[in-house]
Amino acid sequence: MARRPQEDLDLTRTGDLVGTLRYMSPEQVRAERGGVGPATDVYSLGATLYELLTLRPAFDADDRQELVRRILDGEPTRPKRPKRIRPSIPRDLETIVLKAMEKEPAARYPSAATRADDLRRFLDDQPIRAAARRRPRRPSRNPWNGTTAAAPPTGSSWPSSTIRPARRNRPVGDSTRAPPGWNATRTAAPS
């Protein structure tokens, strides 16, 4: 029976690492002494869940050396976000998968039991304990973004009209309503 070259990526060779390469954690691929433990299992379970959700492996390559490179220090350092492959995947489930597949063992779940606990919480519609790692947002030019208004004292009737965006370089004759006390004659252009 003829095999395609890519199918050999799933096979263990004699004298090679034991296990399926695409499910191995970075420390397992590096064959670190004492590197195999609960964090390695958590990574492998995360890689399995990733593939079940997206129907593709977290890291894929045409040959073994490229796959090893991607697992160890490839760019991106994490697999592609599952929601980008299948938008229907819930964000909390994506967070669980990506936390299990962190490159650094200390950043993963401490054990498979804590990961299973988060999966149970997800299935029971409870908040998960894993925090999503978010990219910092680019600053916005919108004057409302990032503006923090002080909350009114409890029981107060603070008028909402006092919260306004910053007025910057407003053109002469702007059609927006001028604030009380504004000198309307200053806005009119001479004819």
Automatic annotation (TrEMBL):
Domain Protein kinase: 1-123
Biased composition, class Polar residues, residue ranges: 142-163
Basic residues bias locations: 131-140
Region (Disordered) residue spans: 118-191
Family annotation (InterPro entries): Kinase-like_dom_sf (IPR011009), NEK_Ser/Thr_kinase (IPR050660), Prot_kinase_dom (IPR000719)
UniProt biased composition (Basic and acidic residues): 118-127
Source taxon at top rank: Bacteria
E.C. designation(s): 2.7.11.1
Presence of the UniProt keyword ATP-binding in the record: yes
A GO molecular function held by the record: kinase activity
Keywords: ATP-binding, Kinase, Nucleotide-binding, Transferase
UniProt protein name: non-specific serine/threonine protein kinase
Record organism: Paludisphaera mucosa
Organism placement in taxonomy: Bacteria, Pseudomonadati, Planctomycetota, Planctomycetia, Isosphaerales
